[in-house]
Input
Amino acid sequence: MSGRTHRVQQHRSALPGVEAMTLFSDHAFPRHAHDELGIGYVLSGAQRSWSVLGQVDAQAGDVIMVNPGEMHDGHPLGGPRRWRIIYFEPSLIEGLLAQEATVKDWTVKPVARDRMLAADVARLFARMDEESLLVCLMRILDLHEVRGKRPAPASPSVARAVRRLDDAPQASHPLAELARHCDVTRFQLLRGFAREVGTTPHAYLLQRRVRLARRLLAAGKAPADAAALSGFSDQSHLTRVFARHYGVTPGRYRAHTGRRVDDSG
Output
């Protein structure tokens, strides 16, 4: 990322299962997914991203959201953008909404132009408490929910491929072997997977591995151990992929959780 604008500040949270960040960056994030629910807002600049609703733009003042497991990316529009984002473990959301819904039963919109919600999210970022989170969730459920669950892969072959990759992301999955497992040709699998999932099987496997590595790092594993346990060839491979997806290196993510991180390479 040398020569580019990229600054990340990670913030402490009193809530368990929560990660909060402020970013100022012109980094283009590739398509990937998070295990957590993400809620944030754009402070300045603008970005274009792929989402559950297709391509969307977000500008200063907009609330940005991403569902657990939702494939998305992020590209700057006209220069660096600054945004704040909070990631919540699904179990935390499910516990808070036990009598209303679960994170598996509803889908949030990727962008909301809602000044009141933006103010609520800013308050949540400042206070990081359950009451502020509930206020945000109730407004999101009332006004910014996409009705119905996110669609799963429609074809049995793609669904089987996704399950196989999800079950063992650390294992090797050559395309030919994966296609045989799904009873289709390599071309059929590639075409169907890209159409229904939004990326190739190899790219999906990489982002599953990097999500596993992120959990291992958060649990205290050293980057070299996280790389080996999540299926990367070595630590440098993990570092390249992790930085591309999350904007920080594995070492800095592990060492600076809750402290300032300024990662420019």
The CA atoms of residues 17 and 26 lie 28 Å apart. The chain has a mean pLDDT of 89.
